[in-house]
Amino acid sequence: MSKTYSWGILAPGNIAGKFVAELKGLDNARILAVGSRDLNRAREFADIHGIPRSYGSYEELVSDPDIDIIYIASPHVFHAEQTKLCLRHHKAVLCEKAFGMNSEEVREMIDTAHMEQTFLMEAFFTPHQPSYREARQLIESGQVGEILHIHGWFGFNKSPYDPKGRLFNPALGGSAILDIGLYPLFDVLWFMGEPSELNAFADLTPDNIDQTITVNLQYEGGKSASIFASFLSATGVGTDIYCEKGMLRLRRTGALNQSLEILLPGESVRILNWDETSCGLKLEASETMKCLCENQLESPVMSHQCSIQLMKFLDLIREKIGTIKP
Ligand SMILES: NC(=O)c1ccc[n+]([C@@H]2O[C@H](COP(=O)([O-])OP(=O)(O)OC[C@H]3O[C@@H](n4cnc5c(N)ncnc54)[C@H](OP(=O)(O)O)[C@@H]3O)[C@@H](O)[C@H]2O)c1
Prior knowledge:
Blueprint (H helix, E strand, L loop, with lengths): L4 E6 L3 H10 L5 E7 L3 H11 L3 E3 L2 H5 L6 E4 L6 H10 L3 E5 L6 H14 L3 E4 L6 H12 L5 E11 L18 H17 L4 E8 L5 E9 L5 E7 L1 E12 L2 E7 L5 E6 L6 E5 L7 H12 L10 H17 L6
Parallel strand pairs: 1-2, 1-4, 2-3, 4-5, 5-6, 7-10
Antiparallel strand pairs: 7-11, 8-9, 9-10, 11-12, 12-13, 13-14
Helix pairs in contact: 4-5, 5-9, 7-9
This protein binds NADP nicotinamide-adenine-dinucleotide phosphate (NAP).
């Protein structure tokens, strides 16, 4: 019989609520505790989700000896410090994206995981999802030919502009590329590998936050990719993969509803759909527990190297638009 793992939730905000709702559906997961900067907020979250233990500080949460895994769901600026805190208490960590604020932070987080011999994974949704795995298999099988171009986008309209809100606030890691543009960026890197050249253009707020960004990536052999992300445009999220023999369209509305459309000339469009029974945030949680069960310190699905590579390009893009120094 597989072991039941006890989870602690650090920072009970918006995504933590969605994650916990999915985690409850996993037989081998027990949500044991929640930690907030404010005990009342922790208690309120615990009451809503039926969580037995509440703590009024993150330190108390990581000191609970009965917790095996901590899910970190705070704004990105706090991820590095909080991950290191958890790892030093020998808690396995599943930490939300963006993993850190830059490559140096990500390196420190991974170094700490190695030093403490404790599991660490970025809570990055994509490579666990069946739609992406199916698309990758199709490409590897040669059925659609080589990829010539990928266009990926992620946008929603976050007006009215709130300079204090998480998305636009420099103190909370505000940035369209860090918050949502990293999804299409990951897709491009995952399907096409590293580009030979990259250019980026951004619309910046008065606080130097990229609220809309476009990125163009060039590859050897005339291949290319483009990315669009915006807090001002309700585009939804999608990735189109243009191949020699046809096209693949990845779509999703939220984490729990995904599709892959396969368009080949002369054939009717094939549409594959996945619903909440087979996709979502719970796949990251399942992968975490599978790795712990197998005594692995990192996941082969979302490896440390994947997180390092993603952050390397997030740094490069922000250097191009001038929001961080080279
Ligand atoms: N995987 C996904 O699909 C997905 C979706 C949305 C967001 N995310 C990621 O999840 C993280 C959190 O996003 P969110 O939208 O859930 O944020 P949020 O609702 O604003 O919640 C963040 C939580 O962090 C805690 N926090 C700690 N220090 C804070 C500070 N100085 N200011 C504000 N909050 C602070 C707060 O909890 P306490 O004060 O109660 O401790 C707050 O409830 C981000 O890194 C984001 O990129 C992932």
